[in-house]
Amino acid sequence: MGASSSLGTNSLGRRALFDKTPLEKEFRQRITVIRKILDATDVPINSTGAGSGADISREARGLSVVLLYAAYENLLKGISRTLLESAVKLRVGNKRLRPNFQVFAIHSKLQALTDISSAHIWKGSGRRVVDALSENTCSINSNIFPNDGSHMKTKQVITFCEVYGLEAPATILGDAWGRINTVVSERNSVAHGQQAPEEVGRAYSIAEIRKLVDVWETRWCDFLAEVEKKASSRDFYRAPR
Length: 241
Fold this sequence. Notes:
Helix content: 55-70%
Shape: elongated
Radius of gyration: 22 Å
């Protein structure tokens, strides 16, 4: 993902806490690339019934699914990074963060606890976690992603929304919601060599894959807009005094 600032400018000229513009721009660019691939490989049939060139349309449709997955994964991780960057730029200490953001602030210390004996928890390591929650500085690492091990399936999106205190995703994502697990599974089949791109592409007509691309773009941009609306308040990141 290209470099971007999580703090854009709103219509009043004030710096926004969460600016979706760079994330949406990159996501739409990735979708545009998919459409270009489909356009370039949608071989017309001439009057003799033969294609006007080498027919790689099935391969292109299969590759499109892989690229849809990549666009979605990149967007979700970009949203996470931007939310954490916004929390850091508020310049409030760990103790003022909401509990969900406090978990990110003590993430490295929590991980360290898994590598020590039970006895050491009581001899300082556990106390350091508690002390970190009272710090006047923010120790969030914005590169952390709340990975739940479900490999970007719908469960991961649910976890993501629960971790950040966002609305349940199914309604916002609408008709894209039921396609996520299929896109992930088909992408994995290609990525891990279980299926060739043309095998995945054979399951889609050109009209079906184009419709999926349209739905994917619309619904994930809707999701991004909802995140921006929710994350534009300081109270999204910090606890009230």
